């Protein structure tokens, strides 16, 4: 307690931010719902760097491209750590997930595994699988359009389970899909809500409270969540091991790395199964969020949908679906995906980094151990900045069709922000981004998307709400999705025959 008081009273340098309460800090300023909106108000009031604290635990929000890149990219050697959170890590069992692993030998081993399997050069080997899963998704979407949330969930989870474990999902009610969705929800909306800081993270001795003691309810929750998390780490991995022994396995990330038995030390297998599990957790919500934001944009902007379909029709024609070989010839489709990243902002506050040593930035003292958030929503100070993106609140893919100076194009590229920063950039970005492009292109090629209608045929404005604490995933909204023509249905039936 004394160290927290000392840090609060004696920390040098002015740090702009909302006024804290003595000792308690800014507890009253945090929220579990759309924290990025609160952080953006701070950014408007206090500038590029905003500091708050909870009982002395510093939280720093970076609100400009310059501050974000200066610290998280250029100074990644000291800003590349992840927070050692007692609740998420020790009590809930997430400390071996890639997103939570502290910077060091373990994180380097995990990233080597991921780079080996998902580097740029490896992605074309996954294209046939991505195409098969995408075609299956489109057929399900056309058959039951109102279930689009479940369909994209099955697509995102099924693709990852297939790529990582060689496991094929059987339905939306698949056992691994359900377990994975439960664990992703626990992580995003339970463990990490409100910035992911729990009292036990500030006062670690609370972890020793007996479960019957007042205020120890977090331990009961953590034990239940940890049990489910461990199931999801172990069960799909056991499936791969069993499949390898029986010879019935399908090529996957895990099977490829397990084939050389000489490498299968206990440490290697420990790293592998946690790294594999991390890929699922990282890709599921990202894919669902980007797709739902794309769908919302098409509902609200039919002129964008029509323009994209005209481009696809001229390049692809009516008798097949888009493939990866078409990408270079479909710049407007690329622009729609870029604009979806920018306008939708899938992870508005990114995932927190941890400062490994004291630092000073623009005269501001940054204390060691502070958690650092890149405020990507206010990249909207980065990605809604009117100087970078005129009419920034408008969904306008044409902005990415403009000829601009290379330096400006780089600064405006949303991929620099939406997939993380520096040494903790998402290592699965190449796979996720490729699958999202084909998903978007295929939906544009096959579907008419519009607002839902009431009983009198009047359009209904979609009701949009966000209740995920980490991802800007909209709750289900009503819309109309239907095949473009009878010929489209014929083409989709042909993909089913070809894939059988």
Automatic annotation (TrEMBL):
Cofactor: heme
Domain of life, source organism: Eukaryota
Binding site for heme: 426
Keywords: Heme, Iron, Metal-binding, Monooxygenase, Oxidoreductase
Pathway named in the protein's UniProt entry: Secondary metabolite biosynthesis
Keyword Mitochondrion: no
Metal-binding as UniProt keyword: yes
Gene Ontology terms, MF aspect: heme binding; iron ion binding; monooxygenase activity; oxidoreductase activity, acting on paired donors, with incorporation or reduction of molecular oxygen
CDD domains: CYP64-like
Gene3D superfamilies recorded: Cytochrome P450
Pfam families xref list: p450 (PF00067)
Family: Belongs to the cytochrome P450 family.
Record-given protein name: Cytochrome P450
Organism expressing this protein natively: Mycena rosella (Pink bonnet)
């Amino acid at each position: 307690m004394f160290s927290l008081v000392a840090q609060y009273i004696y920390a040098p340098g002015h740090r702009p931010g909302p006024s804290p309460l003595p000792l308690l800090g800014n507890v009253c300023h945090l929220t579990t719902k759309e924290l990025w909106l609160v952080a953006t108000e701070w950014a408007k009031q206090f500038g590029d760097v905003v500091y708050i604290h909870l009982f002395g635990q510093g939280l720093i929000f970076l609100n400009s491209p310059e501050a974000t890149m200066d610290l998280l990219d250029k100074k990644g050697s000291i800003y590349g750590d992840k927070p050692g959170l007692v609740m998420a890590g020790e009590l809930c069992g997430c400390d071996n997930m890639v997103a939570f692993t502290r910077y060091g030998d373990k994180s380097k081993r995990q990233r080597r595994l991921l780079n080996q399997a998902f580097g740029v050069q490896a992605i074309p080997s996954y294209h046939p699988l991505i195409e098969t899963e995408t075609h299956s998704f489109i057929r399900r979407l056309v058959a039951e359009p109102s279930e689009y949330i479940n369909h994209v969930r099955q697509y995102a989870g099924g693709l990852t389970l297939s790529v990582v474990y060689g496991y094929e999902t059987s339905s939306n009610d698949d056992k691994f899909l359900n377990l994975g969705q439960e664990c992703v929800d626990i992580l995003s909306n339970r463990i990490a809500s409100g910035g992911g800081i729990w009292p036990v993270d500030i006062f670690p001795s609370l972890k020793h409270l007996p479960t019957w003691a007042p205020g120890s309810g977090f331990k009961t929750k953590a034990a239940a969540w940890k049990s489910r998390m461990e199931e999801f780490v172990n069960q799909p991995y056991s499936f791969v091991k069993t499949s390898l022994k029986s010879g019935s396995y399908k090529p996957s990330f895990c099977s490829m790395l397990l084939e050389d038995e000489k490498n299968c030390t206990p440490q290697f297998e420990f790293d592998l199964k946690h790294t594999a599990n991390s890929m699922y957790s990282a890709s599921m919500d990202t894919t669902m969020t980007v797709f739902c934001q794309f769908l919302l944009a098409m509902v609200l902007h039919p002129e964008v949908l029509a323009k994209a379909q005209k481009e696809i029709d001229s390049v692809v024609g009516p008798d097949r679906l888009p493939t990866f070989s078409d990408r270079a010839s479909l710049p407007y489709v690329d622009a729609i995906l870029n604009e979806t990243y920018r306008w939708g902002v899938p992870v508005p506050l990114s995932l927190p980094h941890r400062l490994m040593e004291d630092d000073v930035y623009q005269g501001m003292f940054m204390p060691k151990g502070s958690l650092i958030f890149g405020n990507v929503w206010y990249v909207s100070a980065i990605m809604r900045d009117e100087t970078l993106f005129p009419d920034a609140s408008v969904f306008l893919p044409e902005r990415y069709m403009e000829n601009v100076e290379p330096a400006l194009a780089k600064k405006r590229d949303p991929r620099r922000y939406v997939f993380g920063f520096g040494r903790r950039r998402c290592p699965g970005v190449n796979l996720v981004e490729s699958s999202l492009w084909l998903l978007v292109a295929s939906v544009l090629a096959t579907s008419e998307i519009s607002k839902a209608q009431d009983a009198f045929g009047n359009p209904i404005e979609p009701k949009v709400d966000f209740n995920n604490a980490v991802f800007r995933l909209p709750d289900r909204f009503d819309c109309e999705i239907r095949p473009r023509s009878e010929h489209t249905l014929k083409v989709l039936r042909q993909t089913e025959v070809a894939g059988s």
